[in-house]
Design goal:
With 204 residues, the protein is α/β, with parallel strands linked by helices. It is 42% helix and 17% strand.
Amino acid sequence: MNQITLHRGDLPAGLDFGPVVAVDTEAMGLNPVRDHLTLVQLSSGDGTAHLVQLTRDFNCPNLKALLTDPKTLKLFHFARFDITMMQRWMGITCAPIWCTKIASRLSRTYTDRHGLKDVAREVAGIDLSKAQQSSDWGAAELTDAQLQYAASDVLYLHQIKAGLEAMLVREGRMELAEACFGFLPVRARLDLAGWADEDIFAHS
């Protein structure tokens, strides 16, 4: 049985997530300039999830320390969005990073279905519900359904990473994936600076 703990404002001091922590975020929308960050979810991959409901002053030193710790790998699905939101609202650069969506695009080239639900089903045999994805994440009291949904986005990422990592190694694309992961903080800066929809590497 998975365990979910909700923290208001910040993580308590002393929690140990190990060398790899799965991370996800919820926000009031998909526009990082307009829509503020509301929730950060974390899991060490052991069946427990810690959810931090953020205050609008983003005074969360313990959470920020974890997300910027160079010794802790932060594991995301579609890290580009999450770390852009963290740069915009928490004022931090989250690193180092591993992104299962990028890993899926580089390894699962036989499909165009790289959303977490599809990747989780194929790689880890997990059927995730996305029913609460568009709910009100700024509510003072989150529902049990919201908490379960938020936790599910991090509880299985370690398992998914293991499957995708094996595929990347098999296809000889691990080094390329790691280079992409390293570029993500710069990609987030470009998004916030106004180049979210423009490919600066394109010829025209």
